[in-house]
Write a structure and sequence with these properties.
It is a single chain. The chain is an alpha/beta fold. It has two domains: about 190 residues, 2-enoyl-CoA Hydratase, Chain A, domain 1; about 50 residues, no CATH class. It is built from twelve helices and ten strands. Strands 1-2-3-5-7-10 form a six-stranded mixed β-sheet, with helices on both faces. Strands 4-6-8-9 form a four-stranded mixed β-sheet. Helix 1 runs parallel beside helix 3 and helix 6 packs across helix 7. The chain is globular.
Length: about 250
């Protein structure tokens, strides 16, 4: 029997991996988990060498089922919502490796990441309306700004179960793969991100999110662009690219 444990953070070089570890309980979120995960996020923030975070679950059936029914009825604090806001606001790219289905708050845990890679056969179910629960503001904002109001209404107002193919169609999933191909696809994303200039990736993530929220400043965007043109990192990368092209032409 697998032991039910708190989420764990592993850091290997530039890659951090946050893993939910209650597969027999569908990787539910317990009362203490938001605090545990928030401390893991603080740890990531203090490690400048970390360039990407992968969020995933244990087992092969469910990514995350959110809070249990008992916890939903007894909790009125913002710990879960604040935790997801922290994930969303991380400076580095975040990838949700959805090893299975997502239910309740687990759907928003995935949505707080920049990329969501799902597996065939998985499903999404948001039961808030069946409980008579008006979802918390941060979660509604994420779904509406990232999927649009029509898809958000179907998820929240009908409480229908959506299969993986529909989740890909509406943009909830960035990619959909066979279960055995999940890790390879995640590593493709990780490898591609690590090949890019870290400062440019962080800056563009910030500005893309601001644009999506209608909070973007064009002067700030112009300043970021011009600053990157003057950076030594850009100069070095352009020079290296020019050398590669010249070498190919001489062959």
């Amino acid at each position: 029997m697998m032991v039910s444990e708190s989420p764990v953070l592993q850091i290997e070089g530039a890659v951090a991996t946050l893993t939910l570890r209650r597969p027999e309980q569908h990787n539910r979120i317990d009362a203490d988990d938001p605090g545990v995960i928030s401390r893991h996020l603080e740890d990531i923030g203090q490690r400048p060498e970390v360039s990407v975070l992968v969020v995933t679950g244990s087992g092969q059936k469910t990514f995350c089922s959110g809070y249990t029914l008992g916890q939903i009825g007894s909790r009125l604090d913002r710990s879960f919502e604040d935790m997801l806001d922290r994930i969303e606001q991380l400076e580095i790219p975040t990838i949700c490796a959805m090893n299975g289905s997502a239910y309740g708050g687990g759907t928003d845990l995935a949505m707080s990441c920049d990329f969501r890679i799902g597996v065939r056969g998985s499903r999404l179910f948001m039961p808030a309306a069946k409980f008579g629960l008006h979802y918390y503001p941060g979660g509604l904002r994420r779904f509406v700004t990232r999927l649009g109001p029509t898809a958000a209404k179907k998820i929240f107002l009908t409480a229908q179960t959506l299969d993986a193919e529909e989740l890909l169609r509406i943009g909830y999933l960035t990619d959909l793969v066979e279960p055995e191909a999940l890790n390879a696809k995640v590593q493709d994303y990780v490898g591609s991100i690590l090949e890019c200039e870290r400062a440019a990736v962080r800056s563009m993530k910030q500005h893309i999110d601001q644009l999506a929220l209608g909070a973007w400043s064009e002067p700030a965007g112009r300043a970021a662009y011009e600053g990157s043109l003057r950076s030594s990192a850009t100069a070095e990368r352009l020079a290296a690219l020019g050398e590669k092209r010249q070498a190919r032409q001489l062959r």
